[in-house]
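Moderator note: this is an archived Q&A kept for reference. The question asked for a predicted structure of one protein chain; the sequence and the answer are reproduced below.
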Amino acid sequence: MKCNLTFLAIAVAIPMYGFGQDSTKVVNNQYPNTFSSGSANVSPFNSSAKRFNDWSISVGAGVPLMQTADLTSIKSKNRGGNLFGYSAYVSVDKAITHAFGLKLQYDRGETRQGWFDTKDAAPANARATGQVGARTQYDAISILGDINFSNLLRRVDNHSPFRWAFHGYAGVGTIAYRAYQKDEIGQRLMTEKKPFKLNSLFGQVGAGLKYKVSNRVDIEGRVMYVVTGDDGFDGGGNKNSVINQRTTGTSDNFFNTTLGLTFNLGKHESHLMWHDPLQEMYYRMDVLAEKNQDITVCKKGDLDNDGVCDDWDRQLDTPAGARVDGAGVALDTDLDGVIDLYDKCVTVPGPVENQGCPTATASNGGMVEEQSRTLEGIEFDLNSDRILPSNTPILNNAVSYINSSTGDYRVVGTTDTRGTAAYNKNLSERRAGNVKNYLVKNGVQSGKLEAVGKGKEDLKYPECDPASKCPEWKNKANRRVYFEAK
């Protein structure tokens, strides 16, 4: 029978690229407020800002089973047992986006089909009854599209670390094989096909379930359906042979079930296919930046890096890390002249020289400070204790303020509501410890600071329990470190 296969073209997804924004350190002799502030530098995005690995190598082995053919591997009505072959593959993988990649794959294996294994003796009347055994040795090279459905279908920002991913594969290539048949006379070569010819084209489609063992290694179970496009692949002989006249099929196809490993290559900590882009969709995008690399996303630029393009930004020198309104003006909730980023009493008006907090009159008629004030605005990425570059202006101002004061301070770390209480307690302690270490390295006396972690028991937004009830900017605000007077 002549092969008459039509292979569907694989739609290639448009590459997506991660954008990162980091603020650089601002030095200013004045206390930053609504009317006087520093501005961040902007540098163009380039390849050195890439944070994720996108190359890997995969290897695996498994069992192929002839399914749609005149001679099959799977138990059928005309014989008693199943025959198992072997297969192996190796591929070089390139991730184009977090949800799509390409594989250049080499497969090698042997299928076994028919009434008996070719390693066994044939029945005495095998040829007369047509009860033959067959095996096919094959080599194949193919290009496969890889769709990460776990990322493609993600529609909510759950921000939960995930270790399982469901992948779909489809592709075409060239296959070469030797098909042997055995009866009581002996074993003989029935069909041979050379690679890289028009009639050697084949296709395969399937799915795999990956488990992330570590940032460098994944394990995957995969099931592929291979369409050979050839009626002689099963060892049945030419189209007019006794065996191949039994059915009207035009292609001998088989399932290939494998278990394999993927080794992620590169210097970065994580692979692109394990990245959830929704983790930074809702708050700035500085999670991607590691080398103070910013991307210009507006035609006329974004001078202060606040997410509002300069052509409609009413405040072009917004301090790094400050939240702004739609016009690019730093928020000042209590309208006291100190923006929320530096206002220790966000909802209560106070003078600029007192960091936005009110003052109270002491019994002797002098002025005393409120001891309940806190300094906030130091926030963290999910499951991270790394101090973001956008936090450094706040911390540098905290150094100046603490050194100029006579009191001691408590550095308090918190988390959002994801994770267990024990895990969050430990994470919050690490966050507070890192901030304390930063302050000490920049001149604060260690004895003036105490680092404590409160886990998820001290939420800035208590309504965000569970975290899925809130937008991500609120959850990030819960992942914070703040200072309070002891």
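Archived answer notes: The mean pLDDT is 77.
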